[in-house]
């Protein structure tokens, strides 16, 4: 993957709160979505 692709991936990961979702799944605390949406951000 190129540097630009990785930068976009990391930005989306931050927006979607990927780390918090990973921890919730690992602890079997699956419920409502944690992340934000891109709707209206551009």
**What composes the largest sheet?**
none
For the secondary structure, the number of strands is 0
- Unreliably modeled segments: none
User: In angstroms, what separates the terminal alpha carbons?
Assistant: 24 Å
Helix count from the secondary structure assignment: 2
Helix content estimate: 40-55%
Q: List the secondary-structure elements in sequence, H or E.
A: HH
Main attributes of the structure:
single chain, 42 residues, mainly alpha, 2 helices
Report on the structure:
The chain is mainly alpha-helical and 42 residues long. It has a domain at 1-29. 52% of the residues lie in helices and 0% in strands. It contains 2 helices and no strands. The longest helix is centred in the first third of the chain and has 13 residues, at 3-15. It is flat, with a radius of gyration of 12 Å. The mean pLDDT is 79. Keywords: Pyruvate. This is Hydroxypyruvate reductase-like isoform X2. It comes from Tanacetum cinerariifolium (Dalmatian daisy).
In short:
This is Hydroxypyruvate reductase-like isoform X2. Keywords: Pyruvate. The protein is an all-alpha fold.
Blueprint (SSEs and pairs):
Blueprint: H1 3-15, H2 18-26
């Amino acid at each position: 993957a190129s540097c630009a692709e990785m930068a976009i991936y990391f930005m989306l990961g931050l927006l979607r709160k990927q780390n918090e979702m990973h921890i919730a799944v690992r602890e079997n605390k699956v419920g409502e979505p944690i992340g934000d949406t891109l709707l209206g951000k551009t």
